[in-house]
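Minutes, project check-in
Item: structure for the 112-residue chain
Input as provided by the requester:
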Amino acid sequence: MSGRVFAQATSPAADLEPAPALAAAVMANRENLLYALDQMVATLQSLREDIDQERVEAVGEFLGQTCEDVNRWRTERGSGNWQSEAFSSLEGTKPVGILEGLLGVGWRSKEK
């Protein structure tokens, strides 16, 4: 990833708080962040395996679903329709904290 795509992906980092404040936020939200990181690592490992095994169809499906999810999220966010079907399964959940925007994670169930 380079050029314009890299600049777009990393542009939110330009507006971050100083590192000590971010570290404090991470520690204050440790449990949810660890959960989100575990989910991201598992997703990336699965994608890596598909790429390594040259599973073109699986990679295409993953990327297609990702694009659909992002577009749906943008539409929901833009319309303020937080009661939509996409968010109906979030009842009984809590936000993961300030890093949700930075890391792209949104919600985690309160139950373990």
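Outcome recorded: The longest strand covers residues 93-95.
No further action items on this chain.
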